[in-house]
Each structure stands twice: as structure tokens, then as C-alpha cells.
Amino acid sequence: MATKHYLVFLLLDYIFTIGQTIQIVPTVLVHGGAGKIAEDAIPAKLGGVKMAAHIGYETLLSTGDVVSAVEEAVRSMEANGAFNAGYGSVLNWEGNIQMDAAIMNGSDLNAGCVSLITDILHPISLARCVMEKTRHTYLAGYDAMIFAAESNFTLLPEGALITNESKQALEDYKNSINGGITEFDGISIENELTETFGSPGTVGAVAIDANGNVAAATSTGGLTGKMPGRIGDSPILGGGTYADNAAGSVSATGHGESIMRFNVASRILALVKYKGLTAPEATSKVLDEMRERFNQTAGVISIDHQGNLGIYFTSQHMPWAYQSNNGLHYGVTKNIITMEEIEVN
User: Is 238 annotated as a binding residue?
Assistant: First the structure.
């Protein structure tokens, strides 16, 4: 009889547990790139991520659409010269801008990716256009720019996105390479250079609504002095960007080649889905493993399907911010978080 009572208790407890609903707080979380940031550049970057998180959150409240929320958050940073995306993107070896971006909807796994984009301010919106207006997922280069023109994107004059800071960064990078060596003379250059030239990393956003729908968006100018035609991790689904309602959403930043090789976004969400880790647990585990494997740094923002936030970086800095119903939170160095109460319109 005691055994029967115990089994009834377990059954009732199980029914009570599965009957409980997780109260997910709608949230928009953004980052402004992982790396070493000059002290005098930090205030502008913090101001930029705070504004982006606020814009994304206001968009989420007004539209109820997580995809629009991450797009608008990233657009805000693409228009801000403090970041390496859109206006202010770093330059390749030839002194030109070539940008990458991706956006993904976790509810249906629909996504849009673009690479080698020039002379438009918002590559993230072009990526969304690929997602929603073509039967493809990825467009790149000359033909992606033709699609942009046909889709009524404003094509800016050549060089309009280039800043004096990005020009100086490319000059400094080239000057740092000794005697006649060029970017294409060997694979040892990267290992010899430890200094960051230009704005580090990329920009990105992840979001979740009260129903557990998630989205992710990432946009970047890449690496200062990169080979023309180089594509980084940002537009690679499962590398630098991914979203799936069954697990969560991720936007990565940092050493792109290592992020791609380690499949960072997919690894994080696999740990959430199949091992039961939370977003912060999975994010820190994967980035620590990547650093151990490749001796390279990165940063990630993530939200799991239960609304837990992952904010972790192995680099010195990563400006980040998120807004939810309990205010605006932000930071740039490890273990230092600031919170502001903010009025929602």
C-alpha cells in the first residue's frame, strides 16, 4: 500500500510539474564586438550598444516580431561609426569595404545571408530581403549587389562608408608587417601579429518574445587588411549566427576563422538542446574549449529557449547590452554589469 501511495504521489508531482509554464521575459540582447578596445573608444561603443538594445526592445514591443527586433538593433549599430559594420567597417588589403551579414528566424529556421557587400549602409536588411524575397538563403558579391539594386536599396557613392579611422587602421596594419612581406606571402603573418588594428569584432543581436520565439542577426566588416574575397563567420549559419526555437539563438564575434572551424553557434545550442545546459553554461563551455583548442578569443551573446541569457567572452573586452521589462543592463569588461531603469514608450 505504501508503494502505491508513493507512485500516486510521483504521478501527481509529475502532472503538476509539466503543467507549470515558464514565464519568458521578452528581451533583446546585443553585442558590439569582442577584442581589445582602446579606453577612449569604450564610451562610444557602450552608448551604441545601449541604444541598439533599446531600439530593438521598442521594436519588439511595438511589432511583436523578434526578427524585426534584431534587424533594427543591428541597423542601429551599422549606422554608427563606432562599430565595424556598415558605416565604419574596416578595410581589406586593397583599401575597400566588403561586408558580411546574416539573419535567422528560430520559428521556421528561415535565414538570409550575404557576403562581399559594398556601398550599402545596412547589409543586415539585405540579408533579410534574401530570406523573405528569394528562394535562396545565401547571396554574395556582384550578384548580391545587383539584387540589392533591384530591391531598391540605396547604393552609396564608392567609399562613402569608409572612415578616417579605418584608413589609419589599414595603414598601421601594413606598416606593422616587416620588409616587403604582403598579406599573401604566407600563413605566418597572423601568428606574428598580436595587436588589433581597427574596430575589433562584429555586431549582433538576439531576441526572444513571451512565446519563446527567437531570432539572431549578425553584421560585420571583417578583419583589417584581409584578403579581398575573404568571408568570416558572421554569415555562416551554425558558425557565427543561428536561431532555433527548440534551443535558442546565438550571435558570435571574435576570431572568425576559429569560430567557423569550431562551429561555435551549433555547439552551444546542441549543449542546450541535448545536454540540458543553460545558455550561460553552454556559451562559456564552448568558448573556453575554443580558446584551448585554437588559442584564439571570441565572444558570444545567446538566449536559450527558456529565456536564460548567455553573455561571455574570452577576449579583453566585449561591449554588450540587453533590455527587458526590468531595465537596461550593459557592460564591456568581465564581471562588471551596470543597470539603468528606462521608461518604455
Answer: no
Q: Model's pTM, two decimal places?
A: 0.90
256 annotated among ligand-binding-site residues: yes
Q: Are 310 and 252 within 8 A, CB to CB?
A: no
Residue 1: CA atoms inside 13 Å, Cβ hemisphere, count?
A: 0
Catalytic residues: 202
Residue 7 to residues 11, 17, 18, 144, 257: CA-CA distances in angstroms?
A: 6, 15, 17, 62, 54
Residue 336 is predicted with a pLDDT of: 73
The answer to whether the annotation marks 233 as part of a ligand binding site is yes
Q: Which three cell numbers stand for residue 62?
A: 511595438
What tens digit of pLDDT does each residue of 8-47 get? 343 444 444 444 567 999 999 999 999 999 999 999 999 9
Burial class (CB in 10 A: 0-12, 13-18, 19+), 95: middle
Report strand pairing: 309-313 vs 110-117.
unpaired
Distant-in-sequence, close-in-space partners of 232: CB < 8 Å, separation ≥ 6: 100, 202, 220, 222, 223, 240, 256, 257, 259, 260
Determine the pLDDT at residue 1.
46
Residue 231 annotated in ligand binding: yes
Are 93 and 83 a contacting pair, CB within 8 Å?
Answer: no
DSSP 164: H
